[in-house]
Amino acid sequence: MKRALVCGAGGFIASHLVRRLKQEGHWVRGADIKVPEFAPTAADDFRVLDLRDPDACEAAVTLDSGGFDVVYQLAADMGGMGFISRFHGTILRNNGLIDLHTIEAARVNGVSRYLYTSSACIYPESLQVDANVTPLKEDDAFPAEPQDGYGWEKIMGEKICEYFAGEFEMTTRTVRFHNIYGPYGTFEGGREKAPAAMCRKVALANDGGSIEMWGDGEQTRSFCYIDDCVEGIYRLMHSEYGLPLNLGTDHMLTINELAEMVMDVAGKSVSIVHIDGPQGVRGRNSDNTRLREVLGWEPGIKLEEGLAETYRWIEKQVAGR
Fold this sequence. Notes:
47% of the residues are buried. The model has no long low-confidence stretch (mean pLDDT 96). Strands 3-2-1-4-5-6-11 form a 7-stranded parallel sheet, sandwiched between helices. A two-stranded parallel ribbon has the order 7-10. Strands 8-13 form a two-stranded parallel sheet. Helices cover 39% and strands 17% of the residues. By secondary structure, the protein is an alpha/beta fold. The longest helix is centred in the N-terminal third of the chain and has 21 residues, at 88-108. Helix 1 (12-23) packs across helix 7, helix 6 packs across helix 8 and helix 8 packs across helix 10. Helix 1 (12-23) links the parallel strand 1 and strand 2.
């Protein structure tokens, strides 16, 4: 039985990953500053720890007998555009500390394989100024020119893995997420991503009513459902590929189109009121060429299917309040 540590296990993606690892027969410890908000953890052991603290990271990685075979590092202070466009210093400080202390604790304790979760936010802003963007390849990351502090922090995290792998002969894996969504994630409060925000707004709106949207809605993105995300993480961790790898879909659409899809799922006709607000880059899409080559796989859950699951869950949450 493999022993796995999942850092950030109180969060959206990591809590789903814990459940997948349990299904694969792993013994799993979760560690985070908070427990999962929407469902009990599936972890065998859960430690409430502030992973900005090196002593907390050491406690997370330490077992009474033996050690962890693998560490999945998903812990981060992050959110949607409303959050990452404002708190650049906070994000750099908190996530930089987490990144350094978790990998050092893993190194000291002889962890055999370490996975770091990066983001499409690392890609240069100059390559994302057109809504009809050319899909972003892994090699496009440098020269670096991300839009915000979150992107710079993720670049630093990637380089930490690269240098630890080179100097200390650690086996590391790095995945770049492209807009992951699904149930059991944040859907209000300013840290939610676009799919969750749209689902919440439509769920709260009356048929024939209206919702607000930041910008003109013509900015483009691709979105990856959580089950595909977890599958990709698991496959990459068990692969022999050590460079950063995109994980997302290459189905690009506008945020206006995303809102229309949510309305279709909800069976509502709602008008959109466009207002000023942070929009991020104008266009972003994933080039999955290397993903297909490396893993012999790519995400296959259609956006309509994933949004239906996400909307039904968020609708229940807001109805209960």
